[in-house]
Design brief:
single chain, 546 residues, alpha/beta, TIM Barrel, Immunoglobulin-like, 3 domains, seven-stranded parallel beta sheet, 13 helices, flat
């Protein structure tokens, strides 16, 4: 509590000197803050439909003198208009991190994505934020979210990310890898920390995010403190604590050079119905657009001294980020990097071992154990893990590396997840149109490629259509074609009769089954059901008329 007293004194003095601000005559701004999250529903709620252009324009005018950026949650058009929140922010002179709201409703999601892309193409978007806490809520799978992000990136967005809680980002390395910048939502109020220690905890979380970011910029996508509501653990919402957190947070962000979007601009009463009474009190401004008590201090340039780092030399903590393998086929080495939170004057070491998950040793990787040593002054060390690099269909596989018995340090991440991605890609088979035999030629073969399967475990069944029927090729007693290690295959389809005037060619990709006879077609009107029912992919090509 001692550290909080100077901060509260600053706020009290600020109230005496600065008073409150309204939008009618904004005061001189000494420090223009970085960014603020925007929601337009100071009355009503999203359930009644889009906000009006007039409402959004007026609210953007409130915040624009105080901030450089704003962040929106949707890019859908405003009421009876083609304008959007992003376009109104642009007109107010703000840079925009424009969002699209993603949920379990896939049709609504596509509408949101299309609206965001439209805003991007109109030049209204500086950062495209695809979804907010989508994985935290469990509304979409990681693969679904990544597909939406790729769709937005393909539309020409310069920077694409998603916003989610810090814990979610730290446990989803594929999502972090797909983001151009990391955008973390972090609320120490919801975690029950007292306001005077909240920024110290945020600082620790931020360091973990930076360590896991792969060198990418980490932006605080949301953080804040309500001015009223329920007490959660040691977190007490009040006007004084909301102002204290705001000043403390911005002091930290300015000192560390962190970009941020504070939550939120103006109180939105409707949020109380979803998250309790505090939901209505996150704003820097009241519903009346009057700046809340104590908030002006930040814009007056007030900061407080560092209260987020320890004054004593901390015990180093050993950490490692979740890692995704390169997916390189064949045996190779994966390097897992361990980090120390601070350099130590003594040697630091920790024991480690691999543990099976959906990936198992020795099929997917080589089981191993050992001890990692950090020489005095070192901040990182590596573990080398052997990956088999076998072909895989279906979901990614996962195993863990567990750490124990630290010496001269603590363990920040006792278990690290290692992901072996699906290296095979989508399952498919293709006949090369260019290799279709010359009409009425004396001989000929078709060639093609397969993808997404282990060539050693699959085969191709080829057919041609001539004189009203399908025929197995190359011969009834040789009804399948072998796939090479590269996924290519070739089948002789002109082996007699009227083969050279065939009009169609078909190739079916089938799993090999030991001692299982392969049905053949000898002039049948359709390809055997026993073939089509078990095939994982097929391709049919029509030969152009001579």
């Amino acid at each position: 509590m001692k550290r909080l007293l100077p901060l509260l004194l600053i706020i009290v003095l600020g109230l005496l000197c600065a008073g409150c601000s309204t939008t009618s005559s904004p005061p001189t701004i000494i420090y223009r803050a970085h960014g603020v999250c925007f929601g337009p529903y100071t009355t009503g709620s999203p359930g009644i439909g889009p906000a009006s252009v007039a409402t959004v324009s007026a609210e953007m005018a409130v915040i624009a003198p105080y901030f450089t950026w704003t962040r929106t949650q949707t890019s859908l058009p405003l009421q009876n208009s083609t304008e959007t929140q992003a376009s109104q922010a642009r007109k107010a002179g703000l840079k925009v991190a424009a969002g699209c709201w993603l949920s379990t409703d896939l049709q609504a999601n596509q509408t949101e994505i299309a609206a965001l892309i439209a805003d991007i193409q109109r030049g209204n978007v500086d950062i495209a934020v695809v979804g907010n806490e989508t994985l935290y809520r469990g509304d979409l799978t990681e693969d679904q979210l990544l597909a939406y992000m790729r769709q937005v990136k393909a539309a020409g967005a310069a920077l694409v990310t998603t916003a989610d809680t810090s814990n979610v980002l730290l446990t989803h390395p594929r999502v972090c890898a797909a983001c151009d910048v990391l955008m973390a939502n972090d609320y120490k109020y919801w975690e029950g920390f007292a306001v005077d220690g909240a920024i110290k905890q945020l600082n620790k979380t931020y360091d973990a995010l930076v360590a896991a970011s792969g060198g990418k910029q980490v932006i605080i996508g949301e953080t804040g403190w309500p001015s009223a509501g329920n007490v959660i653990g040691h977190a007490i919402p009040s006007p004084e604590n909301a102002a204290a957190y705001w000043v403390n947070f911005v002091s930290w962000a300015r000192a560390r050079g962190v970009e941020y979007f504070y939550f939120e601009a103006i109180d939105e009463p409707w949020k109380a119905q979803d998250e309790g009474p505090q939901g209505a009190h996150w704003g820097l401004w009241e519903v009346s657009s009057q700046l809340k008590t104590g908030m002006m201090q930040v814009f007056n340039g007030v900061t407080i001294p560092d209260n987020w780092t320890d004054n004593v030399m901390p015990t180093p903590a050993i950490s490692a980020a979740a890692t995704v393998d390169s997916g390189t086929p064949g045996p190779h080495t994966l390097h897992l990097t361990l980090h120390l939170s601070s350099a130590a004057t003594n040697q630091v070491s920790v024991d480690w071992q691999t543990v099976n998950g959906s990936a198992t040793a020795p099929v997917d990787y080589t089981a191993a154990a050992g001890t990692v040593i950090f020489p005095p002054g070192a901040l990182s060390a590596e573990i080398s893990l052997g990956v088999i690099g076998n072909w895989v269909m279906g979901a990614d596989r996962i195993f863990q590396v567990e750490f124990s018995n630290p010496r001269n340090a603590t363990i920040a991440t006792p278990t690290v997840q290692v992901t072996l991605p699906n290296t095979a890609g989508p399952v498919g088979i293709t006949i090369s149109q260019a290799t279709l035999p010359v009409y009425a030629g004396a001989s000929g073969s078709i060639t093609g490629t397969t993808s997404g399967v282990d060539p050693a475990k699959y085969k191709v069944a080829c057919f041609l259509y001539v004189n009203g029927g399908w025929w197995t090729k190359p011969y009834a007693d040789t009804p399948f074609t072998t796939i090479t290690s590269t996924g290519a295959w070739t089948c002789n389809v002109v082996t007699g009769g009227s083969d050279n005037v065939a009009t169609q060619y078909a190739a079916y990709l089938l799993p090999k089954v030991d001692n299982a006879p392969l049905p053949v077609a000898l002039g049948a009107s359709t390809i055997p059901t026993a073939i089509t029912a078990v095939a994982v992919a097929h391709d049919i090509k029509v030969r152009p008329a001579p």
